[in-house]
Every structure is written in C-alpha cells, then in structure tokens.
Amino acid sequence: MTSQVEIEIDKDLCTGCGICIKFCPEDVLAESDELNQYDNHFPEVVAKDRCIVCRRCELYCPDFAIEVEEEES
C-alpha cells in the first residue's frame, strides 16, 4: 500500500501570516504571488512529494486555513 497526501489550503481564510511556511520542515509550502480577497499572499504547495505528513502547517495555522489528509491507495 502507498499513501498519497492531499494538502488543502483555503486561501480566503488565510491572513498571510506565513507560520505554515516557517514551520514546515520539508519546505513544502511557499508564499504565492497571488492575493486572496483580503489582499493577503496565501501559501501554495510547491513540493507535495516532500510532505512527511507532520501536519505542523495544519496545527500551527491560527486561521484553520490548511487541512492535510493522508489517503491510502
């Protein structure tokens, strides 16, 4: 069995604090060039294959804007 990681980012909940980017040990996230409806730069997934499913981004996000799911296939 292999597992696949899904990282969902609700860009409109994000306030652009960058905590998720700073706490990711594998540099999976980076700041997007795009802005959300509140003019905040939200994170984007740049290296999903490096995600170790530690969920630090999800746990430390003060806005509950990130959800990490590990799916078995």
Topology at a glance:
Elements: E1 3-9, H1 19-23, E2 29-35, E3 41-45, H2 56-60, E4 66-72
Antiparallel strand pairs: 1-4, 2-3
Structural overview:
The chain is mainly β and 73 residues long. It has a single domain (3-72), classed as Alpha-Beta Plaits. Helices cover 14% and strands 36% of the residues. The chain has 2 helices and 4 strands, in the order βαββαβ. The protein has helices spanning 19-23, 56-60; strands spanning 3-9, 29-35, 41-45, 66-72. A two-stranded antiparallel sheet has the order 1-4. Strands 2-3 form a two-stranded antiparallel ribbon.
Outline of this structure?
The protein is mainly β and 73 residues long. Helix content is 14%, strand content 36%.
Unreliable stretches: none
Extended strand count: 4
Average pLDDT level: 94
Compute the number of structural domains.
1
Distance between the termini: 6 Å
In helices, the fraction of residues equals 10-25%
Provide the β-strand percentage band.
Answer: 35-45%
Whole-number radius of gyration? 12 Å
CATH class: Alpha Beta
Number of helices: 2
Q: What coarse outline follows from CA principal-axis ratios?
A: elongated
The major β-sheet equals: 2 strands, antiparallel
Q: Under CATH, the topology is which?
A: Alpha-Beta Plaits
Strand pairing plus helix content: what structural class?
mainly beta
The CATH architecture designation is 2-Layer Sandwich
Order of secondary-structure elements = EHEEHE
